[in-house]
Amino acid sequence: MNNSGLNFVEYTQASEELFGKFLTKIFTLLFSINFLFLEGAVISGLANELTFSTVKFLSPYVLIFLTTLLIYYNSVDGLKIIARLSELVFYLTIFIFLIPIYFINKGDVTNILPLVNNYSSLITAVPTTFFAYSGVELSIVIIPLITNKMGAKGAGIAACIFTTVLYTFITFVTILYMGWRLTSQLQYPFLYLVATTEIAVISNFEPLFIFIWGNKIFQTAACMHFGATYFFSEATKIPYKKSCFISSLIVALVALLMVPEYKRSSLTDKVMPYLVLYIFIWLIAAYILSLYKKVKRNEK
Amino acid sequence: MKSSRLFLLLIFSLLFTGCYNRVSVEKLFVIVGIGFDVGKDNKEIENVAEYLVFRGQREIDRGVSLEIGKTINEANSNRQLNLKKNYLLGTIRAYVIGEERAKLGIKDIIDTCVRDQERNLNTIMVVSKGSSKNIFEQVPKEESTMADEVKELIEASYSANFFTNNAGVKDVVNMYYQEGRNIVMPAIEKKDSTIKIAGLAVFDRDKLKKLIPIEEAIYVNMLRNNDVKGNIALVMDGYEKAVDVECITKRKVYVDREDGKLKYIIKLNVQGEIKLNTYNFEEENDEQKIIDDVKTQLVNNLNENLNKIVERAKNDYEIDVFDIQRYAVAKYGRENEERIRESFKDSEIEVVVDAKIRSTGRYK
Fold first, then answer.
1. Which chain B residue is nearest to residue A109, measuring alpha carbons?
2. Which protein family is it in (chain A) (predicted)?
3. Alpha-carbon distance B36 to A286, whole Å?
4. Distance in Å, alpha carbon of B17 to nearest chain A alpha carbon
5. pLDDT in the model for residue A5
6. What is the CATH number of domain B226-364?
């Protein structure tokens, strides 16, 4: 392994060399809180949306319990199984791309015109999109653990582009079809959009979308659980398997706090800006420090 | 060890996810149509429901129930007091809004149709001339329920008279929320012992403003909708000297500002197919000449009728029925929306018709 630019070291080692032992402890704890919160938000979001749309007869608490159980089972054996799951679910994600294509010629271009109404509102809206992309910080942990790092850089860039394009495309198509006013008033705009289709046999795209999206969310939560567990065990020095169980319990509790959707959105609106700001500052600080300090190569 | 863990997990999930204590299918009514009316003093809501009753194997009957309540869902729960079975709202085929109810406002109907996840967004929504009770009181002839007849009627209207097939709840909601648009729904009426399309119902925000009769509605449709089909009859002298042209229209709208006034230009591209021609039939004329003749006649006819309807819209309806203000909002920004809405009467609307005869049929 002697590719230039690909000498990744493990997170704790790098962080200790950059920030020192004490700060690393705090940062690791903060990272673990970040992931625990994100995962709780994702799981409660899944439970809320499922009880709202397809499984009305289930209580969200049961769903949260089952999902956390499954996620625990999935991530207790480490990164390998999560990687397999991610690979499987990735092909399903392509279908999420296909669904909005159906709506492209159904919308009206006047719904998105004028493209720029005033610039100040455009700029103030930019930070809110950061929250949608949070979770990418997981790569800090994952990349050093991958044995074959050859394609890591390219895959990372491709994944970023894919996610950004998918997110922008879906938002664009939704506003193209419904207009901004209805989109901003709906709880789940894209779910409304897929429910407006008329197709034989399955009646509309809603069940199909819920299936694909549910898988995707499960995978996202499993990835985040790996991050949460990793940071938790690094911060508290509890072995990985044990901390996986403990963090599952914490996540379930966090998710229970956010059970009706309005509670979830109000809580995430309050907490997310701080988390995103923290990660931003950490990344910039780490980047600047790493320019001046030479980090030793990983011995393993 | 691993497989047993997985097995335990699956058993565990199964234990938690059941439909225990839910109403089973055979104990459900199928509600197919809902009518909205107002009761006494315009304070109460009359809610008409048409439902299917299954008796035994092959016997299917229909029933109509009228309930009164202060809100839509109160009336719905009152219905459960005298129905012997449970019902679902997702099976509704058509909503019929009574004229009086529409005049008072349909904000609550739109809200509950979007908010209530059980309701389907593709259900047809129409306005009825008179109360919706009159519609559901009839005995269905072609379909098994009146709601199905309404749905089929609206869906079939697409192939003629320049109607669109956008009459679902989703389209009404879109018209309600999108900037610079007004709700326009098809209107139906009771005729003899069945129903027919009576024209268009135009709403100002959520209140019914005007019912446009079908003779005018055809031309409103023509200016309003893109890519629709209909027949234009050019009558010279009775049916013995007439030309029928089946037209497919393509519409484009341009907005401009001229000395403080908004100027809309509606460019209408008409592709015609001659279906009947008794006018030039016996004359041994040049083919090109006949086509040119029909074309100029068509353009003149359309110009006359469309300009008449534009004048009528400006002076009589006083509301944008042509769905053109959205283009002005798109061009001049959403902060001007109110001004654009109010200025419809003073704005200038120019219709430019461009016709093309695509075929003359089997005859030359």
1. B330
2. Belongs to the amino acid-polyamine-organocation (APC) superfamily. Spore germination protein (SGP) (TC 2.A.3.9) family.
3. 64
4. 7
5. 45
6. 3.30.300.210
